[in-house]
Amino acid sequence: MNDIKTVCVYSASSTQIAPVYFEVADELGRLLAREQIRLVNGAGCMGLMGSVADAVLAAGGQVTGVIPSFMVEQGWHHRGLTELIEVSDMHERKQRMAQLSDAVIALPGGCGTLEELLEVITWKQLGLYLNPIVILNTNRFYDPLLQMLGKAIDENFMRQQHGDIWQVATTAAEAVRLIHTQPVWDASVRKFAAI
Prior knowledge:
The protein has seven helices and seven strands, in the order E-H-E-H-E-H-E-H-E-H-E-H-E-H. The protein is 42% helix and 16% strand. The two termini are 31 Å apart. A seven-stranded parallel sheet has the order 4-3-2-1-5-6-7, sandwiched between helices. By secondary structure, the protein is α/β, with parallel strands linked by helices. Strand 3 (63-68), helix 3 and strand 4 (83-87) form a beta-alpha-beta unit. The mean pLDDT is 95.
């Protein structure tokens, strides 16, 4: 069992999505708080990002938000977090969120969420991030991406071993279980980074 103290959750900021996505984000937040796992996210106040943070806080948990200054200037930040870390840009935001985390869970989201997820997968492929990565595939949202990743492996753009970089969960409870049980990688994975 991995000793998980902090989880980075990538998620949508959209407010116009189906209720099922909010329900799962809320459940994930409650589970993290119950297990005394600190949430790290992008500090947004809307959409799933705000929902998972609100759920953690309502259940007595801790939330660290990392957000660029320009978003704070726009008033996009959550004002009730345990800790707010203001950074210079999006690149620093992603790096800091990863550095603070013992695992990653990706809820559904748009380009920003997809970009964060694919970047941390790439970092793990290169041995730069070694912790568990779980894709929470609510409502089969990630099926097309998982199919694309499978195609990349099948056509030798990635190695078969790269399919072990991430695990897929269909429920919040399964996602939390997987961050505890998915093996932490060793930096020696770099030896098979290239095809």
